[in-house]
Write a structure and sequence with these properties.
17% of the residues lie in helices and 38% in strands. With 218 residues, it is of the alpha+beta class.
């Protein structure tokens, strides 16, 4: 893609994101609820990828304070359940809660059981306790979702509300994700694969998510 085409694509995506933030032309039935607010139907654990296994080994080898990273060997579905087997992910009162691990840090990943090959817009709200580290996986690559002003990496956000609800919108077009938080830019061109699930990461602290919805684009 040449430079001019890249600029045009970004401008089109910005228009899509602004439209979503204002709910300008979105009908309620356009949106698919990825989280029903009651239980973890549609979510589960997937086997840990070889890339993540190697990343965990390398991290733990070079850093004595690296987080524990349990390896998942078999897929597990949490349909109809209010909590994952280990209690790390809990559905309660309309929130999908990533609980604080007892040993301060532990990497765990919750995935949708669906995959999303089409262009789409994902929107959700999140609330973080101080210095929480979580993340949103978009067909595998991760967008950091944290208590940004303390934990980074986006420490200069002007509209982030600490320990309150914030909205993330991720617009995916042609395998590139344009990501905002409360309308402020996080990533303009996060490259992602052609297909894959949506996921949430647990690392440290407690993170709450709600209103996790996706709308496919034409």
């Amino acid at each position: 893609m040449n430079k001019n085409a890249s600029v045009i694509q970004i401008l089109v995506t910005i228009g899509i994101v602004f439209s979503v933030c204002g709910f300008s032309n979105a009908q309620s039935n356009d949106w698919k609820q990825l989280f029903n607010g009651r239980d973890l139907t549609g979510w589960g654990y997937r086997p840990t990828s070889e890339a993540d296994i190697q990343a965990a080994k390398n991290w733990q080898k070079r850093d004595p304070n690296a987080a524990a990273w349990p390896i998942v060997t078999e897929a597990r579905s949490f349909d109809g359940r209010t909590a994952s087997d280990d209690g790390r992910f809990v559905a309660k009162n309309g929130r999908l809660i990533v609980t604080t691990p007892p040993d301060y840090r532990k990497i765990q990943q919750l995935w949708t059981t669906w995959e999303f090959p089409e262009n789409f817009i994902l929107k959700l709200e999140f609330r973080a306790t101080p210095n929480t580290d979580s993340g949103i996986y978009v067909r595998q690559p991760q967008l950091q979702c944290r208590d940004y002003l303390i934990a980074g990496p986006y420490k200069r956000l002007q509209h982030y509300q600490a320990q309150d609800w914030n909205e993330i919108v991720i617009a995916v077009t042609n395998n590139v994700a344009f990501c905002t938080c409360n309308g402020e830019l996080l990533e303009a061109s996060l490259k992602i694969p052609t297909n894959g699930p949506i996921g949430l990461e647990g690392d440290r602290g407690q993170m709450e998510y709600r209103h996790i919805e996706l709308r496919e684009l034409p």
